[in-house]
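ok here's the first one, seq then struct tokens
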Amino acid sequence: MVYGVILAGGVGSRMGNAEKPKQYLQIGEKPIIIHTVEKMYVHPEIEKVLVLCPEQWVSYTKTLLNKYRLPASEIAVLKGGSTRNGTIMNAISYIEEQGDLTEDTIIVTHDSVRPFITHRIISENVRYAQKYGACDTVIAATDTIVESHDGEIISEIPERSKMYQGQTPQSFCAVKLKNLYESLTEEEKQILTDAAKIFAIKGEKVYLVQGEVSNIKITYPYDLRVAEALIKEDRK
């Protein structure tokens, strides 16, 4: 079974909006999170969508889904965890409780604030996860990447041709991800930035899916303006 897992745990502190997390802000007359859920929901390979959000926003999210006629029977809203990977493990626990956690179960994990994900990106994530067990969506870095150990002086400038910018989705065989995560030490868990790093720490391969420049993450007020422009362009 293939689950779309939408990670909506952010509080939007960098957006400067105290009223509500950024995923609930509107672009194109709909909340960002609704655009994202719709992209997952309509994809023919996604059999069920899970939306994981802060506990205090679970009821509100369910109300939004109902307002935009997204069926509760095919979209479950769950409480997220205290970390990104904890949230993903909550999703896997739900899948296990439903009796759907098998060696063939695939999860396509995606940021709720990346509403411009394409049909192709989802399809390739599903295919790569089924074939290889793990994949990450990336685009080639166009700027030179500068590394600094102390935040003041350049420590290293990696070769740009080998650098990529990570996007989402990140997609996995759910059983393998769960087993690898549970095998980590507490020290290893402390250095995690995302789920793909779980595989990297354990020496497992994570294959690359080509992303899109338009698959932006809405983080800052400027990103909202870009998103509005993209929505208008899509409507032409």
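and now the second one, same deal
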Amino acid sequence: MLSFFKRKKNEDEKIKRTGSDHAVSAKDLLHIDGATTEGNPDEEVYPELSLHPDWNIPIEQEYVFRFLNNELPPLKPNEVSLNGIEIEKKEKAIVCTAFVRSSIDQTIEIGTTPLLLIGENEIYGRKEFDLTQVGHLPPRSSRPFQFVFEEKDLYKPISAIQTENWGLVFELQRENRNHTLDLAESWEKTLAEEDKEKLRKMVESMTPPKPGEVQFVGIQAKFTNEGKLLVSLLIQNGTQQNIKLQQLPLVVEDASGDIVAQGGFILDDFEIKANTSKPWNFVFPASLLTKDVNEIDLSSWRVYPPQE
């Protein structure tokens, strides 16, 4: 399961985790307050290792899990956490190994839950996992488990995902999700108040993305005097985390369904706040057009990343 043994060249090489730690309250995740309401809320709980009863692993690997679990920070009472162990890149998937830990004084079972795969200040992907496969988690225990994100679950190419400073996060469902407009500073300064209000009303009138989804909505497409194709896009962040896009490949189709433009854009410190929509302009020079300008019909059109 783990690749530690493949990497370890000598006994002095230290075994260490590459993932981060993320804890949530049992009330928010499981809608329970825990088995007891008494006790010290500031108590430090160190969950003990619990291997899945169906697992049959070598004693050496059990030792590694036990060692890593003993190195984990304590939890507060009535918490559930995901503590990243390692991330491994496959040809068409990312495999994350992590501890699922509980500081609750009762056996729990986690159902289907959306998880975010995050990096440093960005979201790599999202997937709903059936965590009943983790099994019944004994009181105050810690169980290793593997989470597989396929290409369709990722927001960026596998090659761009870092194997250090990553983490898994429970995406908690929030009530009263008010999706709002997020304007870049440059747009705030240059856009007329009337246009800002139009964008706000547009965002308010639209069905927001599903929890955890990032979607792209075309606002306007037109040709400039220089023959370039200017596409205004609304990038909608339906997650509860701020996300950063470093590069964005886009494809534009016209009314006939033909691809009329295709190219990649490098974005400089481009962040979309949690649960907001941010507009941005993308300019396709003539060299990126795949159809003669005079034959492009923009009476209806759509734009999307080619991974979709």
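notes on #2: Residues 4-170 form one domain. DSSP finds five helices and 15 strands in the chain.
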